[in-house]
Amino acid sequence: MMNIKQLVLASHNAGKLKELQAMLGDSVQLRSIGEWSKVEPEETGLSFVENAILKARNAARISGLPALADDSGLAVDFLGGAPGIYSARYADGKGDAANNAKLLDALKDVPEAERGAQFVCVLALVRHADDPLPILCEGLWHGRILTAASGEHGFGYDPLFWVPERNVSSAELSPADKNQISHRARAMVLLRQRLGLQ
Ligand SMILES: O=P(O)(O)OP(=O)(O)OP(=O)(O)OC[C@H]1O[C@@H](n2cnc3c(O)ncnc32)[C@H](O)[C@@H]1O
Ligand SMILES: [Mg+2]
């Protein structure tokens, strides 16, 4: 079992850092790779797993610390799983608001029953840059895409993601509630088990 006190998070996304640190608790300190470099690696993989490993190796190489990466996104049934690994780049890098507007447009006139979607999160942890055995944990969160944005919490696609088990959008959940049930929370439960943290 690994005894990890400090991990570098291979992400420039402040929303992820906040959620992951809250889920990990005080026993492990997460430091953003932004402390070392502002340059983001190109996400050239064809799967969440490949991109998560690529980001984790890059961060471990730059920082010299064990690294955790989160590759995540939204897979929409009607769109054959798109935007998927391209979720951050869906509107060509114009940001969350543009991504959400493009998604609403792509699903214009699509009835509720066909608006199913899942958030996906893959966490990859490497002990060092060339680690031959990364720890991989996956979490899925099933919901549906709304016809208009709702809610102020969270980040990214949260205002468009309807959470059936709570009858609210994921941006209407409190941060603590989202961290109990999200794709990221599910992946983190598995990671904590693998690290012997619970
Ligand atoms: O690669 P890093 O630096 O970690 O940051 P990123 O924001 O580019 O992250 P990804 O490449 O994993 O892309 C994830 C996309 O999916 C969205 N996403 C992931 N988790 C989400 C969540 O919990 N709520 C809303 N949107 C989420 C997010 O906004 C991005 O558009
Ligand atoms: Mg990214």
UniProtKB/TrEMBL annotation:
Key word Nucleotide-binding present: yes
Binding site for Mg(2+): 42, 71
Positions annotated to bind substrate: 11-16, 72, 155-158, 178, 183-184
Electron transport in keyword set: no
Cofactor detail note: Binds 1 Mg(2+) ion per subunit.
Catalytic activity of the protein: dITP + H2O = dIMP + diphosphate + H(+); ITP + H2O = IMP + diphosphate + H(+); XTP + H2O = XMP + diphosphate + H(+)
Active site: 71
EC number: 3.6.1.66
Known cofactor(s): Mg(2+)
Keyword field: Hydrolase, Magnesium, Metal-binding, Nucleotide metabolism, Nucleotide-binding
InterPro entries: dITP/XTP_pyrophosphatase, ITPase-like_fam, RdgB/HAM1
Class of the enzyme per the UniProt entry, highest EC level: hydrolase
Function: Pyrophosphatase that catalyzes the hydrolysis of nucleoside triphosphates to their monophosphate derivatives, with a high preference for the non-canonical purine nucleotides XTP (xanthosine triphosphate), dITP (deoxyinosine triphosphate) and ITP. Seems to function as a house-cleaning enzyme that removes non-canonical purine nucleotides from the nucleotide pool, thus preventing their incorporation into DNA/RNA and avoiding chromosomal lesions.
Self-association state and partner proteins as the record states: Homodimer.
Family: Belongs to the HAM1 NTPase family.
PANTHER family tied to this protein: INOSINE TRIPHOSPHATE PYROPHOSPHATASE (PTHR11067:SF9), INOSINE TRIPHOSPHATE PYROPHOSPHATASE/HAM1 PROTEIN (PTHR11067)
Protein name: dITP/XTP pyrophosphatase
Name of the gene this protein is made from: rdgB
